[in-house]
């Protein structure tokens, strides 16, 4: 579906959104108090008119100080009847945040079950920027749809088709190198990881914009991860359709950038190494030593640490163009989730000004990120005895940091480099975020780019 606001209408019903304990609008009369309405989160009070029809409603937002994102999306998940509604924001509410939440609340993944969303529709709150909000929601919906689609319908072929469809829609160029063509193009580690699958591994290269600073985004596209010969237990495989969440987020970000006109002032490149990490006679093996595009050799000590291998070749390719900023997005390590949980992705950056801009933007647009260090003291952990690098250092400590250090070796040449170790999945229902695939970091990047690449 395409997220959108309802057109302005004189017949729209008023929806007063209130913080818990705040005084209610004078138009309400005694009815809300008599009904026990107090403004608790997700609480709804429907207001009757003199003829017994509907005059409007109150929506409780809960405690003003409560750390809850997208709470205006609760309007979609309550007993609010379908129809067109005009939201009256409470004091202190950000109209853009409210508007985004109202659109995100429309999201439903209906490809295999159920009907499309048919709930209440909302006029864009006064003071918000509807075009920018639509762009953010459209990019997020694309990311969610791609992640939520199971691997039998979202393999490398299908992810390429989705990338081509987006490129065609936004007027971007796209080139794809697949199968043994990866060896001819000197992208050997992408080929090694994906060669065992029925659908060929590939590198998708999308370009948009022809002037201004260069932004390169690299997104991990492992359409399904069995773990390879170091096979995962079944419980760990259940969510592995989301292992292409970095690529999905990169495509969602590209859609946001295109719809907000960012390509008018910068040159955008999106590189997606896309594979399925499968088990067959052709699988790469534990103990193999691979030679990367950069020339560095990598000892494979765990075939389930495949994401950093395919990213390495793509980062090397991207860095050869010396972009002003290169960002990698990847569902990379369980260590990041142990450290920060599913809702707070870590990011790594050596440039303080860039990191500060990202941190501020993440907080401002409620797309949280947390800076972690490229800790040079752990460099020795990724250097095995028989090769230049180790894809899976033993010991299990600082796993997200050592993965980031591994990737940094291949990003040299970019002006600045940012790595985001995202999760790409919402494990429980939350306002504006149903259980399932979710974008992380894209809106923060979108908001920070004017400061990072002025």
Descriptive report:
- This protein has 454 residues and is of the alpha/beta class.
- It folds into 2 domains: 111 residues, Leucine Aminopeptidase, subunit E, domain 1 (3-Layer(aba) Sandwich), CATH 3.40.220.10; 320 residues, 3-Layer(aba) Sandwich (Aminopeptidase).
- The protein is built from 13 helices and 19 strands.
- Strands 6, 7, 8, 9, 10, 13, 14, 15 and 17 form a 9-stranded mixed β-sheet that branches. It has a 5-stranded mixed β-sheet with strand order 2-3-1-4-5, with no helix packed on it.
- α11 crosses α13.
- The protein is elongated.
- 52% of the residues are buried.
Q: So how many helices?
A: 13
Contiguous uncertain segments of 5+ residues: none
Here the CATH topology of the largest domain equals Aminopeptidase
CATH architecture of the largest domain: 3-Layer(aba) Sandwich
Largest sheet: 9 strands, mixed
What would you give as the CATH superfamily of the largest domain? Zn peptidases
**N-end to C-end Cα span:** 33 Å
InterPro entries: Leucine_aapep/pepB, Macro_dom-like, Peptidase_M17_C, Peptidase_M17_N_1
Protein name: Cytosol aminopeptidase
Keywords: Aminopeptidase, Hydrolase, Manganese, Protease
Organism: Paracoccus haematequi
Short description:
With 454 residues, the protein is α/β, with parallel strands linked by helices.
Throw out a few tags for this protein.
9-stranded mixed β-sheet; 19 strands; Aminopeptidase; 13 helices; alpha/beta; elongated; 5-stranded mixed β-sheet; Leucine Aminopeptidase, subunit E, domain 1; 454 residues; single chain
């Amino acid at each position: 579906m395409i997220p959108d606001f309802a057109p302005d209408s004189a017949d729209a019903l008023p929806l007063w959104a209130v913080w818990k304990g705040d005084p209610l609008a004078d138009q309400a009369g005694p009815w809300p108090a008599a009904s026990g309405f107090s403004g608790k989160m997700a609480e709804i009070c429907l207001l009757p008119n003199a003829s017994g029809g509907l005059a409007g409603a109150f929506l409780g937002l809960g405690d003003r100080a409560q750390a809850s994102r997208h709470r205006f999306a609760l309007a979609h998940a309550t007993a609010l009847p379908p129809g067109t509604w005009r939201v009256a924001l409470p004091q202190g509410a950000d109209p853009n945040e409210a508007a985004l939440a109202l659109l995100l609340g429309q999201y439903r993944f209906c490809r295999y079950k159920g009907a499309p969303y048919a709930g209440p529709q909302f006029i864009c709150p006064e003071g918000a920027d509807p075009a920018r909000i639509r762009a953010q929601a459209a990019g997020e919906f694309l990311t969610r749809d791609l992640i939520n689609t199971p691997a039998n319908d979202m393999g490398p072929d299908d992810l390429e088709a989705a990338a081509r469809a987006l490129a065609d829609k936004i007027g971007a160029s796209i080139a794809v190198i697949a199968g043994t063509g990866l060896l001819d193009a000197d992208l050997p580690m992408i080929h090694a990881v994906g060669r065992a699958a029925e659908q060929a591994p590939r590198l998708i290269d999308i370009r948009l914009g022809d002037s201004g600073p260069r932004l390169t985004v690299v997104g991990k596209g492992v359409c399904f991860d069995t773990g390879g010969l170091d096979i995962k237990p079944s419980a760990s495989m259940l969510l592995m359709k989301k292992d292409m969440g970095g690529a999905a987020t990169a495509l969602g970000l590209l859609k946001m950038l295109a719809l907000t006109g960012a390509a008018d002032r910068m040159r955008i490149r999106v590189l997606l190494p896309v594979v399925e990490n499968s088990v067959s006679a052709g699988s790469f093996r534990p103990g193999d030593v691979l030679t990367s595009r950069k020339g560095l050799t990598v000892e494979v000590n765990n075939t389930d640490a495949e994401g950093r291998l395919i990213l390495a070749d793509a980062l090397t390719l991207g860095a050869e163009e010396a972009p002003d900023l290169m960002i990698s997005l990847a569902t990379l390590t369980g260590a990041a989730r142990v450290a920060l949980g599913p809702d707070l992705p870590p990011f790594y950056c050596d440039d303080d000004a860039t990191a500060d801009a990202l941190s501020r933007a993440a907080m401002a647009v409620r797309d949280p990120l947390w800076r972690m260090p490229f800790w040079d003291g752990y460099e020795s952990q990724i250097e095995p005895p028989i090769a230049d690098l180790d894809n899976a250092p033993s010991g299990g400590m600082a796993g997200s940091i050592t993965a980031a250090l591994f990737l940094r070796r291949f990003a040299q040449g970019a002006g600045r480099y940012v790595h985001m170790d995202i999760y790409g999945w919402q494990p429980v229902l939350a306002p504006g975020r149903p259980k399932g695939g979710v974008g992380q970091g894209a809106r923060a990047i979108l908001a920070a780019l004017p400061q990072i690449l002025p």
